[in-house]
Amino acid sequence: MRIRFAFLAALLLSGAALPAGAETVPGALPPDAAPPATTPPPVAPTRQGRLDQLFAELKRERNEKAAERIAGRIWNEWNQSGSASIDLMMQWAQKATEDQKFDVALDFLDQVVTLQPDYAEGWNRRATVHFMMKNYGKSMADIDRTLQLEPRHFGALSGLAQIMAETGHKQSALEAWQRVLAIYPMMRSAQDQVSTLSEELAGEGI
Predict the structure, then answer these.
(1) Rounded-to-integer distance, Cα 87 and Cα 115, Å
(2) What would the 3-class secondary structure string for 127-156 be?
(3) What is the DSSP string of 29-73?
């Protein structure tokens, strides 16, 4: 009898004899409680989202070196084609360009823009090679395509400004450099060119 009484007492103390519906399980919610709010995992920013943020930082930055670092990060984003084969052809084209084998570089870049026509940096790189070959018309056509895909491409705009200057279109060159500064205010070369061209045009107007 004592054993039975002790067993019943243990059940009462442990909660096993609580009225129906009142039992609790460690960590469980009461029947009428709302489930806890859960925070969804953060969504990784898209490439476009990263670029938008970097361009906003670039426009605000007033320290030249810090702006250069931001611009470098933008170039890193631009250089990512998303295709291993495209990246490899871009590397080969760069090596050929450095070796001044421009025809070889163009062969690779022709394949890049054919295989991935929405890759802005492929067009910009080909524009650069055409510029180095003084094929200004072809360079401008590729610059135009680059800017259609990425209107904020300060590298392509810089190339356009240089072509305009070299072909004697100073006012157009000035406007192109001003477009660069609207995107990248701390680019020193653009600042210098705007100052120089403004003075030259003012002098010619006298």
Answers:
(1) 12
(2) HHHHHHCCCHHHHHHHHHHHHHHCCCCHHH
(3) PPTTPPPPP-PPPPPPPPHHHHHHHHHHHHHH---HHHHHHHHHH
Tell me the pTM. Answer: 0.78
pLDDT digits (tens, 9 = 90+) for 93-112: 999 999 999 999 999 999 99
Question: Quick one: tokens of 51?
Answer: 């670029």
For the chain, domains (ranges, CATH) are 78-151 (1.25.40.10)
Q: pLDDT (tens digit, 9 = 90+) per residue, 11-34?
A: 333 444 333 443 444 444 455 555
Burial of 89 (0-12, 13-18, 19+ CB in 10 A): buried
- For 164, other C-beta atoms within 10 Å of its C-beta total 21
